[in-house]
Amino acid sequence: MLDFVRRLFNPSMPHPPGRRRPFFEGWYYKITDRSEKQTFAIIPGIFYGESPQHDHAFIQLIDGQSARVTMERYPMDQFISSNRTFDLRIGPNHFQKDSLTLDIPAGERSLQGSLQFENIQPWPVTLRSPGIMGWYAYMPFMQCNHGIVSLDHSILGKLSIDGETIDFHEGRGYIEKDWGESFPDAWIWSQSNHFSSIGTSLTASIAIIPWVTAAFPGFIIGLLHNGILHRFTTYNGSRVESLIPGDKQIDWIVSSRTHRLSLRIQRSKAFHVYAPTRTDMSGRVPETIDAGIHLQLHALERGKERLVFEDTGRNAGLEVAGDIDRLVRLWKK
After folding, report:
1. How far apart are CA 139 and CA 29, in angstroms?
2. How many CA atoms within 13 Å lie on the side-chain side of 124?
3. Which of 63, 148, 221, 228 could be disulfide-bonded to 68 (CB atoms 3.0-4.6 Å)?
4. Distance between CA 235 and CA 135 in Å, rounded?
5. Angle, CA 283 vertex, CA 281 and CA 286 arms, to 5°
6. Could you write out the DSSP letters of every residue in 204-225?
7. CA–CA distance, 152 with 268 (Å, rounded to integer)
8. Which residues, in sequence order, are bridge partners of residue 11?
9. SS3 for 6?
10. d(Cα 102, Cα 249) in Å, to the nearest integer?
11. Distant-in-sequence contacts of 323-330, Cβ < 8 A, 24+ apart
12. Tens-binned pLDDT, residue by residue, of the chain (333 aa)
């Protein structure tokens, strides 16, 4: 019971082995150097298939510049995690909320070096809303769960990738995680923490959520600006006013009782990252980490709108996956 409570209020923590199969858990570290010429996503994780023969740990690398995706697999006994905090090791590689160390000298790509993260900005955790999932975090039957480790932080350190040393000093980073039985049937996800002012960050997702005998389009959006986290979520009573996923851009408008947020997400050429199925990690999800997000935040005051913030995010992550037409149909109901 203590372990359950500890993980409930610290969503970044790894889950213990022996959970109901299938089950996956992955942490997503996005890192961009100061020049914004180099952006990578590093995804450590673990997968339990329907059959134990498919169980393994992994480290995936997404290279935004070359659009190359590689994955190293590790036996289960090389995955070691803490039951008190977010601290995990996969072979000689070490991952925490404020640092990572990579030592992959001879894989598809060699990765070596250490990074430290400063001024971490976590999603607030309260008794009423233990993380980005809100009160849904108390529901043990959710198909896929989501957590934010850090909306934005600065980076110190260097990595050597295939013998090339990349200095990430004064770069920007972002960390999230997903865990559960499988990915949703359809979802849109986007994120950027490269706006005009340092410390501004946006994370936004909408997905088909199975619920008892039906399904609904659940969404979570957080905009951190000037130290204030503006939240637009299904569980806090916000609503989707418009959702138009086009081939070149996605137009999305949401509103709460006090604000309206308009997003225009410019799509770019996607590459395919590895994703869990019920049996193995052979699924592929289209993703990019060089999209753009133009946003407008309006305050709603006595029936009038007042523009609070307008900007364009760079180096944006974007996934548009699954049956998007069904997702839109569910929203329109």
Report:
1. 26
2. 12
3. 63
4. 7
5. 130
6. EEEEEEEETTEEEEEEEEEEEE
7. 23
8. none
9. helix
10. 35
11. 323/185, 323/186, 323/208, 324/186, 324/188, 324/245, 326/185, 326/186, 326/208, 327/186, 327/187, 327/188, 327/206, 327/207, 327/208, 327/217, 328/243, 328/245, 330/208, 330/215, 330/216, 330/217
12. 556 666 767 888 888 766 678 999 999 999 999 999 999 999 999 999 888 888 999 999 999 988 899 999 999 999 999 888 899 999 999 999 999 999 999 888 999 999 999 999 999 988 888 888 887 777 877 888 999 999 999 999 999 999 999 999 999 999 999 999 889 999 999 999 999 999 999 999 999 999 877 899 999 999 999 999 999 999 999 999 999 999 999 999 999 999 999 999 999 988 899 998 888 888 899 999 999 999 999 999 988 999 999 999 999 999 999 999 999 999 987
Q: What six digits make up the tokens of 111?
A: 């990765």
* Residue bearing tokens 């203590």: 2
In whole angstroms, give the CA distance from residue 217 to residue 213: 14
Q: Contact at 8 Å (CB) between 94 and 14?
A: no
Q: Which amino acid is at 249?
A: Q
